[in-house]
Write a structure and sequence with these properties.
370 residues; alpha/beta; 14% strand; 4-stranded mixed β-sheet; Aspartate Aminotransferase, domain 1; Aspartate Aminotransferase, domain 2; 13 strands
């Protein structure tokens, strides 16, 4: 079976984990601190706060911006449910915006129409890794904080800077099949030192110093700490950080392989009038190609046909406003239209050219008789 996603793990990651296990320091410690430094350098920001998920990063980002009961946060509907759940965790209302039909990113014009006096933040998602229109969003936001959900976009570029280096708070996922995979994990990046310090307290129950920090100090009462506000326990640990440090070194190479696979799909599926290909990279948008999502007629039948031929597919995403927990009352016509035809094809660094050609051949065979 050809998977939809598969992490690129090797002996380096195994050795990195073994080193941590032998060190005796498995929790929040020196490897996590080193990953934060290296990731900040990679993205081009001043600070990284390493966490156990992108969901935690989104939750903390909203808390840091003072989102509270009754506030509104505009989010795209075409994303994983955690983007909206983080808003609900903070007792605010997710206001769902429609998407651009071609890029599947948040529709800036729809965002502009939905801004009210209660709008306290906007969360764009860089769908599939393609950067959203950040400059246009900033123009309509007029000072409203933009919190970027870059779960798909680790290593993507927007206007010659990496996603995350454009002055907004940005949230990343290092979940098992992401471009930079740890098994689980996430990060929040920012240039704001005060917010960084608060985020580090909030990720560790509100405690002002982690165990590693306290251990490193040579003074009386080294065990003492203070808790001025209640936080969660959502920090990264050194086992995952060790994997992340190896993955970070490989990330640009792995993303380049994803682009090669994208090119093979684009060439092999060109000319099929029943398929819509994803928007390609251009001078201002360089995707990490976490997801290769086509639009296709007879989506469900094609998915079953590919499954029967040993090829797994996915659908990204069922629009969040369809889910019962959010009331299922909003109508977002573009997202609903795109969802009905969306199908994610396999894309990951270890996918071979032969595999890609096999997938293309199966799709072409399906439409010959469909």
């Amino acid at each position: 079976m050809i998977n939809v996603f598969k992490p690129d793990m090797g002996d380096e990651e195994v050795q990195a984990v073994a080193e941590v296990l032998r060190s005796g320091w498995l929790g929040l410690g020196p490897k996590t601190s080193e990953f934060e430094k290296q990731f900040s350098n990679f993205i081009g920001v001043n600070h990284t706060v390493a966490l156990n998920s992108c969901t935690a990063a989104l939750d903390l980002a909203l808390k840091l911006h003072g989102i509270k009961n009754g506030d509104e946060v505009i989010v795209t509907t075409m994303t994983f449910v955690s983007t909206a759940h983080a808003v609900a965790y903070n007792l605010a209302y997710p206001i769902f915006a429609d998407i651009d039909e071609h890029t599947k990113n948040i529709d800036v014009k729809d965002v502009e129409q939905k801004i009210t006096s209660r709008t306290k933040a906007i969360i764009p998602v860089h769908f599939g890794g393609r950067p959203a229109e950040l400059d246009e969003l900033k123009a309509v936001a007029k000072g409203i904080p933009i919190i970027e959900d870059a779960a798909h976009a680790c290593g993507s570029f927007y206007k010659d800077k990496r996603v995350g280096a454009h002055g907004n708070m940005t949230c990343y996922s290092f979940q098992a099949v992401k471009n930079l995979a740890m098994g689980d994990g996430g990060a929040l990046t920012t240039d704001d030192k005060e917010m960084t310090n608060r985020a580090k307290r909030l990720r560790w129950l509100g405690i002002d110093k982690g165990t590693w920090d306290r251990t490193a100090l040579d003074r009386s009462y080294w065990w003492e700490y203070y808790v001025d506000e209640i936080g969660l326990k959502c920090h990264l640990n050194d086992i995952l950080a060790a994997i992340g440090l190896v993955q970070l070194k490989k990330l640009d190479r792995m993303n380049e392989r994803r682009r090669q696979i994208k090119n093979l799909y684009n060439e092999g599926l060109a000319g099929l009038d029943r398929i819509t290909l994803p928007v390609d990279d251009d001078a201002e948008h360089r995707s990490s190609w976490h997801i290769y999502s086509i639009g296709c007629d007879l989506r469900d039948k094609l998915s079953v046909f590919l499954q029967d031929n040993g090829i797994a597919t996915g659908v990204h995403y069922k629009p969040i406003h369809f889910y019962k927990c959010y009331g299922n009352i909003t109508r977002l016509p573009v997202a609903e239209k795109v969802f009905a035809r969306a199908l994610t094809l396999p894309v990951y660094p270890m996918l071979t050219d032969e595999d890609v050609h096999r997938i293309i051949s199966c799709i072409r065979d399906f439409y010959k008789t469909a």
